Amino acid sequence: MDKILVEGGYPLTGEVSISGAKNAALPILAACLLTEGVSLIHNVPSLRDIDTIKRIMGLLGVEFQQQGSSLAVNTGNVQHHVAPYELVKTMRASILLLGPLVAKLGKARISLPGGCAIGARPINLHLKALASMGANMYLDKGYINAKARRLKGIEIFLDIPTVTGTENIMMAATLAEGTTVIKNAAKEPEVQDLAEFLRSMGATISGDGTDTIIIEGGKELRATEHRVIPDRIEAGTFLIGAAMCAGDVTIKNCRPEHLTAVIEKVESAGARIRVHQDHITVQGPERIESVDIKTMPYPGFPTDLQAQFMAFMSVADGWSMIRETIFENRFIHVSELRRLGAEIEINGAQALVRGQKQLLAAPVMATDLRASACLVLAGLVARGGLTEIHRIYHLDRGYESLEKKFQRLGARIWREKA
Ligand code: EPZ
Questions:
Q1: Ligand 1: residues whose CB is within 6 Å?
Q2: Whole-model pTM?
């Protein structure tokens, strides 16, 4: 297993280019199952999670041809409908295959994703919605088995604006009979990018980006071509990293309008940020102000940047309160940050961070995808030797060569065989 080593204390300068969004590419690849043909998807990031969904879709009979970050997806010969436990357990977003398979093939057998480090991650809202659309579902040996002759459109209110739940219902609704109205829908940019893709396949969808999405079902969909939006969480990770390291960085190929909440908080911490149409420039402050955050569904502060912002506040001047409202166990990175000298007190869903002058290099262990990014950021400012980050297979699930991108900005960071 690889590890990443970081020698902290170097300012970041220069330009970094953001890759395609993992959490948009995953549902868009799954949505290709809604038609037979060859769709061409551009700006697909090279990540472990993308490899995983390609492996599972390969088992269903889907063929792929990759050219750089463009991926041709051939769904002309999909014969199977089983997503096996061995693969699903490594990536819970495999549940995104459920809606398209039930809608297109009338059947699906998908391993229950199981929990993960940040929480139980139930999928009750996905299952409840598909059942109301007429899918007959039962659990057997840890697999969800779903069958449906023809799904029918429904009006549904989601107790929680679940992102992949909204996406699963949207995809299933495109082939259902009649109209589906999703209330309290997720508004994330990745949901909007999926809606864009479905419209380019011929679906009639409106309201994406608001809390009410309307899908007119029943049309035959066709293969299409689409460019995945940039990854706002990767962009936010570099925004915070540059602000932490007294950097002067231009973040290219991003969508600043997807990062409004994050930009506001990083500016409040003292960074100078200039927003342009497809790039952001950020100059880190000499002295970092402590800032409180509370994670919320989009357009609020994203939970996927909570750990990275905590690393930032660990070297701020003063106390900051970090509240996590989306997942019940998303403070696992705290114990690793404490190994680097951070002073953090957890009280339920709140973490009180007392900023330190500096962090101290030490070996640490990644526990989940975004916690890994948080430890890389902390390593960039930790002094007194090398910070070693172990189990970085978590990092490779969601970031394309993160250490190489930081290296190009002047960081002393590299990967070694552990
Ligand atoms: C998506 O996960 C993202 N993953 C997550 O990113 C992200 O953290 C999350 O949305 C929140 O923004 C992908 O898009 C592939 P949810 P998802 O359903 O859809 C509860 C990353 O690092 N819930 O919006 O699984 C759930 O437990 C990942 O890239 C139910 O109770 O998240 C959570 O507390 C991590 N029942 C809350 O809703 C359900 O049926 C939000 O979950 C579904 C969800």
A1: 22-23, 26, 93, 119, 121-126, 160, 162-165, 190, 303-304, 326-327, 369-370, 398
A2: 0.98
